[in-house]
Structure prediction request, 76 residues.
Amino acid sequence: MFRRSYGVKLTELHLDDWTIAKLLGHSGVGVVKHYRKMSNQLLADETRRAREMQTRILLENLERWGDEYEQIRQDG
Prediction:
């Protein structure tokens, strides 16, 4: 599990595949693509959570703005 987390972190630091493979003890660079894929999924998950939080904050604030912003609440 540590190797996987470390591999993902190394891809986020934009290290090249050869360096990542050597640091993790792999004989080739083929497996590094799996770490990059996990990193992209992590990014997507974090982005989704951040957008949900922003939407929640906006909708809470819209409650105080009055009826002229009702369409925004309905679209949200």
Summary: The chain has a mean pLDDT of 83.
